[in-house]
Amino acid sequence: MVADGTDNFPTRYLVNDACVLLGKPNVYGSIFRFEGQASVFYAKEGPCYRCLYAEPPPAGLVPSCAEGGVLGVLPGIIGSIQAMETIKLIVGAGEPLIGRLLLFDALKLQFRELKLEKDPDCPVCGRNPTVTQLIDYEAFCGIGAEPVYDGADVTADEVKGELDAGKELVLLDVRDPHEYEITHIDGAKFIPLGELPARLDELDDHADVVTYCHHGARSLKALEILKAAGFAKVRSLRGGIDAWAVNVEREMPRY
């Protein structure tokens, strides 16, 4: 069997498909911020990971743990559940989490359970599977397929130089509120990425805008949104606020 402790979508789909093709159970767990989930995906007796998540989220949409953070004890809680499920499968005791998804909310200290059904049209474990061998999972998850804009990114040193020279820039912080509270660039406009499409009227579409997030993935998504809305002068801060802290404001807290 496989106990999946990975933290990225290409590997999760790879592990799932390999387990289905080899007829092995996949003891699954994932965590994000204050929440976690666990299950056992075993195509011989129930659904697989693709039955639950048929397609990965768009590349760059979901923040990494480095960007979104995770409660330090949460990996131990979900990992212990995975370990217990693995032992149960080895010794053949109890009722494993096959066909069930266990959800854990650390803030409420609450467990919930969802019943999972096998998808008859699943591309790997369904009635007529189309995935019969391992594929390019980075391509499947859109890794490396993000839009590329010539001159779209700018370094922290370059932004600092433009500001020192008196150039008017709108620094647009698209991180989440809890990240903004940790640290931010003075004078920056703060609009979380999820709220940006509804708050475009707060920005001058003729302004020279530099978007930034933690490391740069979400700011490129914000750049894409602004470009699509007709903003002509938009760049993304390469390396995000972390690069700003390393190269410009060295006393700024890093996270």
Structure report:
The chain is elongated. The protein is of the alpha/beta class. It starts with a strand and ends in an 8-residue tail after the last helix. Helix content is 31%, strand content 18%. The relative contact order is 0.13. Strands 1-2-3-4-5 form a five-stranded mixed sheet, sandwiched between helices. The longest helix has 18 residues, at 74-91. It has helices at 9-22, 49-52, 65-68, 74-91, 137-140, 156-164, 177-182, 217-228, 240-247; strands at residues 2-4, 26-32, 35-41, 100-105, 110-115, 153-154, 170-173, 189-190, 209-212, 234-237. It has two domains: 2-140, NAD(P)-binding Rossmann-like Domain (Rossmann fold, 3-Layer(aba) Sandwich), CATH 3.40.50; 153-247, Rhodanese-like domain (Oxidized Rhodanese, domain 1). It has nine helices and ten strands.
Features of this protein?
five-stranded mixed beta sheet, 10 strands, Oxidized Rhodanese, domain 1, single chain, alpha/beta, 255 residues
Q: What best-fitting shape do the alpha-carbon axes yield?
A: elongated
Major sheet attributes: 5 strands, mixed
Elements, N to C (H/E): EHEEHHHEEHEHEHEEHEH
Arithmetic mean of pLDDT: 89
The strand count comes to 10
Distance between the termini: 36 Å
As for the number of domains, it is: 2
The chain-level structural class is: alpha/beta
CATH topology of the largest domain: Rossmann fold
Portion of residues in beta strands equals: 15-25%
Look at the structure and give the CATH class of the largest domain.
Answer: Alpha Beta
In CATH, what is the homologous superfamily of the largest domain?
NAD(P)-binding Rossmann-like Domain
Which architecture name of the largest domain does CATH use? 3-Layer(aba) Sandwich
List unreliable stretches of 5+ residues: 145-149
Determine the number of helices (DSSP H or I, runs of at least 4 residues).
Answer: 9
- Walk across the major sheet and give the strand order: 1-2-3-4-5
Work out the radius of gyration: 22 Å
How helix-rich are the residues, as a percent range?
25-40%
